[in-house]
Amino acid sequence: MNKPATVGSMADCTEILADLVRRPSVNPMGRALSGPEYLEGRVTEYLLNRLSKVGITAVRQHVSPGRENVVAVLPATRSGSPVLLWDVHQDTVPVDGMTIEPFSPAIKNGQLFGRGACDVKGGMASMVAALEDLSTFEARHASVVFVASVNEEFGFSGAKAFTTLLQMCGRESDKVAEELVRSVLSDLPDMVVVAEPTSLHLVTQHKGAVRWRMTIHGQACHSSYPEKGLNAIYSASRVALVLESLAQELSLRHSSHPCGAPTLSVGTIHGGMGVNLVPDRVVLEIDRRLIPGEDPLISRQEVIDYISAHCPTAVIDHEEPFLASAGLSNEGVGAAAAAASLQEAVKKAGIHFVEEVARYGTNACVYAAAGLPCVVFGPGSISQAHTADEWIDLREVEQATEILKNLVG
To answer: Which regions of 232-335 does DSSP assign to beta strands (E)?
Structure first.
């Protein structure tokens, strides 16, 4: 028989989670920021050290300067067993406006507070604790490939790099990680579990997104002679109102879809050098959310064409998307089987099974695009993600650990 989970498993989860929160891994979100709180390196080192100490082989996969995926493997105890991929991202959103100490984890009423506690270091703690417990089991009925990916919050580049490795198209620098994965995997994984705060519900569909920057051009001059220039802020304001109009149209399209209608929003606006200068350029960042089945590039082109039709005199350059994902669909036999497997693991833990859809996006869209059956699952509520006093219920972290072990043990 397998060794049962110990009474202290929750304490282990709490310790791991607190360790992770203490290690900042803030995503600069495309901004030229540097400092001790940015990028994932501290979490990367912690995971490599912790997993290796319990005998789980873990290696790095280089993604970009200062950013490395952690790839680990826990093999099944018998040949021919299925292979599960567990993905969790290392990065968090910034800490601007937080009302608590972001990197000093505090526990109150069974909740742990800190940046990333909910999104998604609680899920990471569950996966790491499950791996550590499973490594002591006499029998494991599935192999686990664990990837702690980088840059989920701004482009999915870690998941994309790992998907390339899975398809054996990786770079020469990926060879160590590729050989480790190939030790248990001859084809693609049978199932992917992507950790996100779903309140232990199973998310089997979610929206995709396409995001890009557009630059509206004008002509600079001194503000004492504004008629000699072309104020880019005025042009950008007209473009923003046109985008608002298109957003209203989109809200009526596919409104009955479980994920909700497509959406469009302007996320940031930057322009102007000083109050005494007529600005010559303004940059907008655009977020177009897609329902599963919509094409990111076609949806982006619709926005571009709509602006051209309604602002024909505006001079606009559109950058290539820095994110383009088609979302997660629940179609296909593999997706249904993946959901059923996790459903059984949830029931075995004595927890009511709930399947739902989401309006946000996750790394699952990257794996789904590669043909892998995915389920998004983890402790914590999405309503607490990215908040000023971010927290997670430690009981859910413990329950998620048990459910993940049920998938394998």
So the answer is: 263-271, 277-278, 281-290, 315-318, 323-325
Furthest-apart CA atoms within the chain: distance in Å? 84
CATH number of residue 336's parent domain: 3.40.630.10
Same domain, 166 and 188: yes
User: Does residue 60 form part of some domain?
Assistant: yes
What's the whole-number average pLDDT of the chain? 95
156 and 289 fall within a common domain: no
CA 341 to chain centre: 22
Same domain, 316 and 212: yes
> Are 215 and 304 found together in one domain?
yes
245 is in which domain, residue-wise? 208-325
Can you say whether the dihedral through the CA atoms of 97, 103, 104, 106 is positive or negative? positive
Helix (H, G, I), strand (E, B) or coil at 170: coil
Domain total in the chain: 2
Give the pLDDT band of residue 30 (cuts 50, 70, 90). Answer: confident
pLDDT band at 143 (very low <50, low <70, confident <90, very high): very high
Q: Which residues contact 150 (CB under 8 A, 6 or more apart)?
A: 39, 40, 44, 63, 64, 67, 68, 69, 89, 90, 91, 157, 158
Buried b (16+ CB within 10 A) or exposed e, 10-49: bebbbebbbbbbebbbbbbeeeeeeeebbbbbbbbebbbe
Q: How far apart, in whole angstroms, are the C-alpha atoms of residue 1 and residue 8?
A: 20
Query: Is the residue at 1 inside a domain?
Result: no
Q: What are the pLDDT digits (tens) for 341-380?
A: 999 999 999 999 999 999 999 999 999 999 999 999 999 9
Q: What is the mean pLDDT of residues 264-283?
A: 97
In a domain, 177, yes or no: yes
Do residues 104 and 252 both lie within one domain?
no
Please answer whether residues 151 and 27 qualify as being in contact, where contact means their C-beta atoms are separated by less than 8 angstroms: yes
Count H helices, E strands: the chain?
A: 10, 18
